[in-house]
Amino acid sequence: MDTSPTALFDSYEQDFRQFIETIKENLESSETEANGEQKKATLRRAEMDLDEADEMVSQMEIEIQGIPQSVRAQYHTRLRAAKADLSRYKKLLADSRAQLARADLLSSSNNAYSSSDDPYNSSSDRTRLLAGTNALEQGTKRLQQSQQLALETENQGADILMNLRTQREQIENSRNTLERADLAIDRASSTLKQMVRRMYQQRAVTIGIVAVLITLIVVIAWEKLSG
C-alpha cells in the first residue's frame, strides 16, 4: 500500500476523474433521449455523480494540506483544474435541467391549447408560457450565482486552511529551535559543572601534594637535627 504524502490525493483525483467521465456520458446521453422520464432519470444519475465528485474535491482540499511544500504548488494546480471541471459540469447539468423543464412547459402548454375549444385562449397560454420561461431562466441564474458563490467560498476556505497550515509549521519550527537551544544550554551547563568539579579535585590533589612535601621536609629536618 502506497503511504506517500500524495497517495490519497492521487486516489481521490482518480475517483474524481471517473465520476466526471460518467457525468459526461450521462449528459451526452440525455441529449439524445426523446423520452422525458428517461431523460430525467439520466439527469438524476448525473446529479448523484456530481455530488460524489464534489465530495472527492473536498477530500482533495483536505489532503493537499499534508503534502510537502516543495511539491504542493503542482497539486494546487491540479486541484484548481478539478474545481473548474466540477463547476463546468454543474453548469451543464443546470442547463440540461432548464432545457428539460422548458420542454415540459412547452409540451403542457401545447396540450392545453390543443385540447381547448376556445380559440381565444392562445394569447393567455402564450403569456403564461413566457412567464414560466422567464421564471425558469431567473431560477437558473440564481442557481448559477449560488454555485459561483459556493465555489468562491470553497477557494477562500482552502486559502485560510493553507495559511493556518503555514503558521502552524512556523510555530513548530520555532518550538523546535527553542528545544534545541534549551538542550545546548543544558549541555553547556553540564560541561561547566564538570569543569568546576575537576578544578576542585585538582586543587585538593595539589593541597595534598603540598602537605606531603611539607611533612617530608619536617621529618627530614627533624632527623638531621636529632642526629
TrEMBL record:
Subcellular location(s) of the protein: Membrane
Any matching Pfam family: V-SNARE
InterPro entries xref list: SNARE, T_SNARE_dom, v-SNARE_N_sf, Vesicle_trsprt_v-SNARE_N
SMART domains: t_SNARE
Top-rank taxon: Eukaryota
Listed GO CC annotations: cytosol; endoplasmic reticulum membrane; ER to Golgi transport vesicle membrane; Golgi apparatus; late endosome membrane; SNARE complex
Domain T-SNARE coiled-coil homology intervals: 128-195
GO annotation, biological process: Golgi to vacuole transport; intra-Golgi vesicle-mediated transport; intracellular protein transport; macroautophagy; retrograde transport, endosome to Golgi; vesicle fusion with Golgi apparatus
Coiled coil: 20-99, 136-191
Key words of the record: Coiled coil, Membrane, Protein transport, Transmembrane, Transmembrane helix, Transport
CDD domains: SNARE_Vti1 (cd15862)
Membrane topology: Single-pass type IV membrane protein
Entry's transmembrane regions: 204-222
Main location: membrane
Entry protein name: t-SNARE coiled-coil homology domain-containing protein
